[in-house]
Amino acid sequence: MKFETLRWNRGSLELLDQRLLPKNIVYLNLKSADEVAKAIREMAVRGAPAIGCAAAFGIAVEASRLKHLEKTAFHAALLDAFKILAESRPTAVNLFWALEMMKSAIDFEKDPGSIALDLSEKAGAIFKEDIEANLEMGRHGASLIPEKCSILTYCNAGALATAGHGTALGVIRSAHRQGKAISVHACETRPLLQGARLTAWELAMEKIPATLICDNMAGYLMNKGEIDMVIVGADRVAANGDTANKIGTYTMAVLAKRHAIPFVVACPVSTIDPHTPTGNEIPIEERAGSEVRGYGETDWAAEGIRIRNPAFDVTPAELVAALVTEKGVIQAPDEAKISALLAF
Ligand code: MRU
Question: For the domain that residue 66 is a member of, what is the CATH number?
């Protein structure tokens, strides 16, 4: 890997600013929970597992910044940091999972300096375990991919969306490294173009044969027999297997069903939320209309038009052929299989 999505540098978090990719490689140096929450909200860092890792480091950064306070003030300020980070984005459950993990690492009996140390170690462990989970997921997921395969992927579920390697793109990466003849169709993923800017960048860097398409070209290519499999990541998998991912994923799943193409979801177990019974209860983020009006400095929509900008949609479990996690592959996921996986 020629870049790091996030890295810990002696009490501060360095984040590759994904808003500027692929044109500019700029690392932000973040020194407070407020700054990390802003980076998550404004999508300098994005992708469910990467958001979780950033939030964990956000707590570690804040603890290190405040460790000279006396005990009561330190505890109160730290709890504020959890609240600020939890409010940064609503859909990816990895954010809340990582914050819970960080909370469980706090021994309030200890002095602030020791708590800060424990929290930086815990954030480091969450980061390391995410990379390991992705490599395992890659191994399991690659077993589903035939020797020659044309894969469509959506949004960015690569190294940039995780601590490293990636989930959906990690499976593709692993299969490619095994010598399989993989070719990828990356959907550009309007409105924020995570496919065109980020997935295409990762694929080009790794020299994996890839073609960029507009989102509305997927059906045509499936109908022509040019796609053998769809692999996507997830922001939250409900207890029954319904899966929230980038807006437009549901469209791909329906198209895949119509053309009898397997639709595969890859995510770490930390993306499965047993407390959300079905997709109906997954909170869907609505973002600013300005993201749909245009891109960057360019605004192309007609003045006065009303805009909707839901950032995610939900694919019902019945459209998911397989769920790949670091614990293995579940075919046709449902509530019973998911609960068995979580208990394993
Ligand atoms: O809005 P984003 O860019 O954070 O959305 C990202 C996605 O939808 C990804 O597909 C998902 O988080 C999985 S990342 C491994």
Answer: 1.20.120.420
3 state DSSP class of 218: helix
CA distance 331 to 189: 27
CA of 106 to the centre of ligand 1 (A): 29
**Structural domain of 66:** 6-135
Q: Which among 133, 73, 66, 68 has a CA at the least distance from the CA of 98?
A: 133
Q: Which residues of 158-197 are buried (b: 16+ CB within 10 A; e: fewer)?
A: bbbbbbbbbbbbbbbbbbbeeeeebbbbbbbbbbbbbbbb
Rounded to 5 degrees, φ, ψ at 301 are -80, 155
Q: Are residues 191 and 177 in the same domain?
A: yes
| Active-site option among 80, 130, 215, 235 | 235
235 annotated active-site: yes
**pTM for the structure as a whole:** 0.97
Ligand 1 pocket: which of 189, 235, 312, 326 to mutate (most atoms within 8 A of CB): 235
Q: pLDDT digits over 16-68, tens only?
A: 999 999 999 999 999 999 999 999 999 999 999 999 999 999 999 999 999 99
